[in-house]
């Protein structure tokens, strides 16, 4: 287990929670940045390169047969008996297969659980054990700071409540058995009851017998997320996801 020391800042009041998936911002983590609502849909996304582009297949097929959707504090998440997560004890999620579907499931579950909304019993072990890369420490510190700022009068360690977000779809940037990059689309309520969508780029690496999420640049998902008007061009999640 890799316990990290506090260092570095993160996003705070500029986001409304939607959940997760990430991004600890949009989803998958997941909240939708308020600033995104006035920016064009082609806002650039920043990524942390994990492998050479030539090592990635562009768009592997991901079958949805046998996948079920279960409520996770207000967010419907996909589960597969074959591809993971195999262990969901203590509200965490580990054990994904080294396949495209396993990578996709890991990206969703790890990013969602890395959100501070579920409290330190969930986000701390998720980030400490399942987020890797040079910006993982900053992500952990940011989550701790955001949690302390938002918990108010709640007892220390208590979750901040249910989320209101829907995972709508995804699009591969690339996949290999060693690493993958995927864009995840999530939707949540915005101002004046308008639905707000965002796409968050999540990268994963196969390490230590399981998929790990690569921490976003600077420990914030803001640079890895952008507004999106619709799910056109993305693979729609079936059933509970969309």
TrEMBL record:
The record's keywords, sorted A to Z, are: Membrane, Transmembrane, Transmembrane helix
Q: Which domain of life is it from?
A: Bacteria
- Membrane-spanning regions, if any? 15-36
Instruction: Give the lineage.
Output: Bacteria, Bacillati, Actinomycetota, Actinomycetes, Streptosporangiales
Q: Which residues form the DUF8175 domain?
A: 49-236
What is the name of this protein? Answer: DUF8175 domain-containing protein
